[in-house]
């Protein structure tokens, strides 16, 4: 019989295009991926991949195997979610995926309180830029800002939360220095992959033509606090920071609506229901802060 674990490695290489990408996705080393692929080749009596300078490409046999491997994966996920959905205990693992600013600047105190209320739930907070796939059981709950509900997969169940707004911010000291005629240029601080959004008007403060680029939201916030210049931030970040002020003459912009998303049978488990109900109440209380109408979390 074919080992399902070998098939998982095959799918990871087929989707990532390289052994390295597969190893990173699966959290294993390079040699483990090669060994698993070799085992599957031997079991099936064919070569599934052709090694090229640009990576790994499926052979004709590999293309045929891919279709059946994806069917095996879908069946495995269906089995897992059915079994998981019958688990009504408040013990076990709960994986929550969300963007880093939502975790670090808004919800981490609430996650900590939930953990204190339910000490037998093992919580994994997955706060990174890449979206975890709920359908593939990479997470149990996703908290996402969604501009259009129609863009979400139909198999996801959603609890709608508040709208999220952003604005343009700079440090209060830097604004005072600019008003006093300081010669240092005010620069746009941008996260490299995003750039300056079209909606972000410069308002009253003129900026230099050369931006200041960072790679992540944490560095972006530190840079604006240090007086490098101005940047766009969610209101729940910018308004709550005592060192920052909104740039005069600029408007707020709606990023989208917060949704708590779950999938299939997993949403029926007691720990998932407890968590989504708990966080939904907290998000409702944060609606003024998220909309830029308040600086308080209370």
Name a few traits of the molecule.
two-stranded antiparallel sheet; 298 residues; alpha/beta; globular; 10 helices; single chain
In terms of topology, how is this protein built?
Layout (H helix, E strand, L loop, with lengths): L3 H13 L2 H8 L3 H15 L4 E4 L2 E4 L1 H26 L6 E7 L1 H18 L3 E7 L13 E6 L9 E16 H8 L7 E5 L20 E3 L2 H9 L3 E6 H4 L5 E3 L6 E11 L6 H16 L1 H4 L8
Parallel strand pairs: 3-4, 3-5, 7-8, 7-9
Antiparallel strand pairs: 1-2, 5-11, 6-9, 6-10, 6-11
Helix pairs in contact: 1-2, 1-3, 1-4, 2-3, 5-9
Query: Could you estimate the helical fraction of the residues in percent?
Result: 40-55%
How many β-strand runs?
Answer: 11
* Shape by Cα distribution: globular
Q: What is the H-and-E element order?
A: HHHEEHEHEEEHEEHEHEEHH
Report the β-strand fraction as a percent range: 15-25%
N-end to C-end Cα span: 58 Å
What summary fits the major beta sheet? 9 strands, mixed
Tally of separate helices: 10
Uncertain runs are: none
* Rounded Rg: 24 Å
How would you state the average pLDDT, rounded?
86
- Determine the structural class based on helices, strands and strand pairing: alpha/beta
């Amino acid at each position: 019989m074919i080992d399902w674990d070998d098939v998982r490695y095959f799918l990871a290489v087929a989707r990532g295009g390289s052994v390295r990408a597969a190893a990173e996705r699966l959290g294993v080393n390079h040699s483990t991926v090669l060994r698993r692929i070799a085992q599957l080749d031997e079991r099936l009596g064919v070569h599934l991949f052709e090694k090229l300078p640009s990576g790994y490409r499926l052979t004709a046999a590999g293309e045929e195997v891919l279709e059946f491997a994806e069917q095996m994966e879908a069946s495995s996920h269906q089995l897992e979610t059915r079994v998981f959905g019958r688990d009504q205990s408040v013990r076990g693992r709960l994986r929550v995926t969300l963007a880093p600013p939502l975790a670090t600047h808004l919800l981490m105190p609430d996650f900590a309180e939930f953990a204190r209320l339910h000490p037998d739930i093992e919580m994994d907070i997955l706060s990174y830029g890449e979206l975890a796939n709920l359908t593939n059981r990479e997470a149990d709950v996703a908290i996402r800002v969604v501009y259009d509900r129609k863009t979400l997969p139909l198999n996801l169940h959603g609890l709608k939360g508040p709208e999220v707004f952003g604005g343009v911010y700079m440090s209060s000291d830097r604004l005072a220095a600019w008003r006093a005629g300081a010669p240092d240029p005010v620069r746009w601080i941008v996260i490299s992959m995003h750039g300056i959004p079209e909606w972000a008007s410069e308002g009253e403060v003129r900026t230099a033509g050369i931006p200041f680029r960072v790679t992540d939201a944490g560095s972006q916030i530190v840079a604006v606090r240090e007086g490098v210049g101005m940047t766009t931030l969610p209101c729940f970040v910018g308004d709550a920071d005592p060192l920052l002020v909104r740039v005069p003459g600029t408007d707020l912009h709606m990023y989208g609506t917060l949704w708590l998303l779950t999938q299939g049978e997993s949403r029926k488990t007691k720990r998932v229901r407890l968590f989504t109900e708990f966080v939904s109440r907290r998000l409702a209380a944060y609606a003024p802060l998220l909309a830029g109408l308040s600086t308080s979390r209370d």
